[in-house]
Amino acid sequence: MRIQKTKKQQKYFWIAFFITPGLLMVFVFILLPLFMSMFNSMFDWNNYNRLGFIGLNNFKTLFTGYYYSERFFNAIQNNLKWFVMTMLIQNVFGLYFGYMLSRRINGSEVFKRIFFIPVLFSITAVGFLWGLYLKPNGLINSFLALINAEHLQRAWLGDGKIATYTIILVNIWRWTGFPTLVFMSSVDALPIENIEAAYIDGANELNIFFKIVLPLIVPAITTITVLTIIGSLNVFEQVYVMAGVDGQPNYSTDTICTLFYRTAFGTYDSSSPVIGVGSAMSVIIYLLTFFFSITSISWLQKKEVEI
Amino acid sequence: MKKIISTFLALVIVFTSCCVVLADEVTTIEFWTWRPEDVTFYDEMIARFEEANPDVKVNQTAINNTEYFTVLAAAMANNAGPDVMQMKCYGQLQTYIDSNYLAPLEEYIPELADFSENARRGAASNVDGVLYGVPAWSQAMLCYYNKSIYEELGLSVPDTWDAFINNLAKCKEANYDALANGTKEGWCVEFLFGGSCLGFTGANDFYDKVVKGETTFEDPAFVTAVEKMGSLTEYMPKIYEGVAYTDMQSSFANEIAAHFIGGTYEYANFLNLNPDINLGVFAVPNIDGEPGYVATYSDMNFSMNSSTKNEDASIKFLKFLASKEFGQAAVEKLANVSIVPGVDAGSVPFIAEILELLKNSCPYIFAVGFRYEQPTGSSLFQSAGQSYMVGEITAEELCKKVQEGIATYYEPFQK
Amino acid sequence: MNIDFHIKKAKSTKKLTLIFTFFMMFVYVIIILYPLFNMVISSFKSTRDIIRYPFALPESISFKSYYTVWIEKKFYNYFINSVIVTSVSMLFVVLLGSMASFGVSRYQYKGNTFLYMLFLSGIMLPLKAALIPLYMIINKLGLSNSLTCIILINIASGLPSTVFILSGFMRTFPKDLEYAARIDGCSDWRIYWNVVMPVVIPGVAIVTIYNAVPIWNDFFFPLVFIQSDALRTLPVGLNSFIGQYKTDWGLMFTGLSISIIPMLLLYLSMSNQFIRGMTGGAIK
After folding, report:
1. Per-residue confidence band for C109, with pLDDT thresholds at 50, 70 and 90
2. Looking at the partner chain, which of C135, C142, C240 has a beta carbon nearest the beta carbon of B62?
3. Worst-scoring range by mean pLDDT, A82-86, A196-200, A229-233, B31-35?
4. Quick check: A270 and B379 CB within 8 A?
5. What domains can be seen in chain C, in order of their start residue?
């Protein structure tokens, strides 16, 4: 009896030992300030002066007030575009390339090293470089002129209908290496016997991929999906660098985080901060992200178990 | 770990404060600007100031304008930040006044009484009229043109709107970009409007009326002005909706474009990009028989942090920034229209030309009058303006959006 | 049995698929390398040449602007600061993160899901949202204007994703192996450090790049919390440099190149170890 108790105590000692330092850091430098700032959403503000407690009024303004509601729903649509495009293009290509590389297609040693290079670049550098290439007289349009496709020339970053997609594609250009390597490493970790056995049974390549490999790498798919969800809801830097904090042109590239930033901190050449509504927005972003990532984690983990 | 760090820090703090005491009574003040491009200019100015005031040392920090106000607000909300800083005018100044971050200056700097009414308006609180900044300079929105291209094509400075359009057409025929302006960035639409079409609205009369709520932005004259701006798209570069601010600057400076509608603050930059450029300015004529208007506004103040611990030294520095010596240097080195009284701005020929044009000026409407609450007139006009310029909405719809947005908070419009 | 995809050995449809894949990968390589190449050649050109002939090669190559940026603009100093910040932050992110992952994934107890969620909830919102309270905390701790506060913020913001990724890896570690180690008399620390960690090296590699890149490139927090020039990091230096020379594109490209090339060289020289780490060298 006594021995068991000490064992239990020991176990809790070790749990505390492993978790406390990290938890303390996260609590002091992330959760505490985040909740302090969310608390502000319950107050009325005159610029940076906190006035009285107003309950959920800022949320009401956000969802029903002229201007904010329109902006908010416009922004969240763009976040959805980010998610769908990233999943469909970046992660599918990541899976495709990752699988092919782990099966050692010709040149794979060179490819896997190069694919990762853009991931290393700062978003400032990437935004600036591509901003230059996507100008009306930049590389892309000059290239289109070269192949006699002038009718396809566009204001890639200036046309509200396509600007968001352009920025997403640049981001995909930068990030594809990441899912590629994650999937490559998870396929590499699989026991090779599975695939060999399937070959001996005469299975074709598609079956090997979909029936044998894919189910075994669900954990990696979970990781990438959740990171994509969080990333898509937190898109900020990419838009900030290539389209400014206003989501130019005419808010067409706005995301909930640029909208939040603009509302909470104001902009250099047109507006001032509205802290109450800004904080309300941060609460919504937080809840949305939390909800979607938890849902997808539990859904995908169920899949894992089923298989 | 934390203990070690804090002990170490405590030691460092004790050590540094000892040093400060030992090193006599030199006070160091922090000075923040959002103009990294002017760092050298301020270094020179600070050197001059320190020579005259050996007891004060000024430490300059330049932060890009895109992050400046975020960093400033975070610091000031915690009673930290610079002692003296660059500050915006009108509504954006009001934000900091309302938050009690700035010190009122008139009691310390009596010279502020000599500034012109217009200059004071940009630095005053709209609640009680007290000044919270030393007005630095004002800007004017107008049209730059390339004199060499004008000579080559045999054009002359236009005196009517039709003549202006005709000049644009001639430049276009000759395969120049007639106008450098593009609409990728919203604020470029605002200054395009301010620099070319305010005369159509009725200029000062319209401004006075609309501020009082006696007319609205749906006034036919305002709609006409917007339509006139829309008619300029024909002379803008190909794919103008993708042309960003820096593209406009470089295409005019590199003599690819013949005209550039924009602010006086461009001048130094054009010469910097292309020292050989031969450029001139005019106010775009709107109504036949009337001279064109340039739109003007105060651009910047120097303000003092209300929680500064170095009040005396900061005031000394602010007095220097309010002096004729500094104003004169700003004119000569930055080609800015200084509003410090008594500065001989005309000593630079370009500024002399601007001063002449400023005799017929009107307020840069949204920046001066409608940036006090959210959504600001500027942000409404900028975004609707971008939609209008690419043909997504009509001029009437643009005006309606601006009017409705401002009416949500602006009392004179709610009657 | 060799199950590698080799274009030569493959037949008909498979061959076509492989050729197509190879082509796609090749195109991706081009659109990765060309902008990089263009950036470097542009750093040797004048602003006017960059605008007029963006694709042309420079007329001459001079490293004068590199000297200006590296020495006169003190980029070497910023570079050292960045190296310190990134390496110290990453050391603690990996150490504390893997410890916490071990604590939430290898023990059964009430509340381990809650603790996991608590960690995870730290990535739900960019920390920028909480700038003003964060400033207050840093100020109260007396840490403003020091590399320490940047390092602490980096560690804290790196931990949630680290716990998320690594605990996924650790969960798949077989219980039996852990029991065996326990019976051999290993302490929990030994199990964590000597038994589990070597196996999750690919996860550590993923976590390292996932966090090190944003830490290396972040300019926002250093901009807010560091005032003295001597403590600035490379991205802050680059950012104010870009602000100051907005119109001199040649110099800007030099600044960009200088901020990218060291990272690139470091990566290329270590890519063998890195790739081996990613593909779980320890298991095989």
Report:
1. confident
2. C240
3. A196-200
4. yes
5. 65-278 (1.10.3720.10)
B125 interfaces chain A, CB cutoff of 8 Å: no
Closest CA to B2 of C151, C120, C87: C151
Kindly determine whether residue C47 and residue B67, on different chains, have CB atoms separated by under 8 Å. no
Q: Which domain holds residue A102?
A: 61-306
Interface test with A, best of B72, B190, B241 (most A CBs within 10 A): B241
Q: Which residues partner with B179 through β-bridges?
A: B259
> CA–CA separation, A20 vs A13, rounded Å?
10
Q: CB-based contact (8 Å) between B78 and chain A?
A: no
- Percentage of residues of chain A with pLDDT beyond 90: 32
CA distances A295 to A78, A225, A298, C165, C277, Å, are 21, 11, 5, 17, 31
Angle in degrees, 0-180, between the axes of helices A163-175 and A123-133, rounded to the nearest 10: 130
**CA–CA dist B279, B245 (Å, integer):** 19
Pair A84, A170 in one domain: yes
Length of chain C, please?
Answer: 284
Q: Domains of chain B by range and CATH?
A: 27-136+298-345 (3.40.190.10), 139-296+358-413 (3.40.190.10)
CA B163 – CA B153 distance, rounded (Å): 14
Task: Write down the pLDDT at residue C284.
Answer: 33
Q: What is the pLDDT of residue A269?
A: 73
Segment 68-127 of chain B within 8 Å of chain C by CB: 70-71, 73-75, 77-78, 80
The low-confidence residues of chain B, meaning pLDDT below 70, are: 1-24
DSSP 8-state symbol, B285 = P
Q: Which residues contact B55 (CB under 8 A, 6 or more apart)?
A: B25, B26, B27, B313
- What sign does the dihedral B206-B207-B211-B212 (CA atoms) show? negative
**In the block, residue with structure tokens 């030569």:** C8
Residues of chain C found within 8 Å of residue A18, distances taken between Cβ atoms: 99-100, 102-103, 188, 192
Strand partners, B294: B361
Residues A142 and A242 in one domain: yes
Q: Are residues A67 and A33 in the same domain?
A: no
Please say if the pLDDT value at position A4 is more than 70: no
Helix, strand, or coil (residue B158): coil
Which of A239, A270, A271, A281 best tests the B interface by mutation, with the highest count of B CBs <10 A?
A: A270
User: Is the sign of the CA dihedral C178, C183, C188, C192 positive or negative?
Assistant: negative
Reported as type and span, the H/E element at residue A20 is helix A2-26
Are A42 and A105 contained in the same domain?
no
Dihedral sign, CA of A221, A223, A224, A227? positive
C202 touches chain A (CB under 8 A): yes
What residues of chain A lie within 8 A of the CB of C131, using their CB? 37, 265
Question: Which residue is closest to C207 within chain A, CA to CA?
Answer: A182
- The secondary structure of chain C as a DSSP string is ------TTT--HHHHHHHHHHHHHHHHHHHHHHHHHHHHHHHTTS-HHHHHH-TTSPPSS---HHHHIIIIIT-HHHHHHHHHHHHHHHHHHHHHHHHHHHHHHHS---TTHHHHHHHHHGGGSS-GGGGHHHHHHHHHHTT-SSSHHHHHHHHHHHHHHHHHHHHHHHHHTS-HHHHHHHHHTT--HHHIIIIIIHHHTHHHHHHHHHHHHHHHHH--HHHHHH--SGGG--HHHHHHHHHHHTTT-HHHHHHHHHHHHHHHHHHHHHHHHHHHHHHTTTTT-
B110 at A interface, C-beta within 8 A: no
Using CA atoms, how far apart are residues C201 and C222, in angstroms rounded to an integer?
Answer: 30
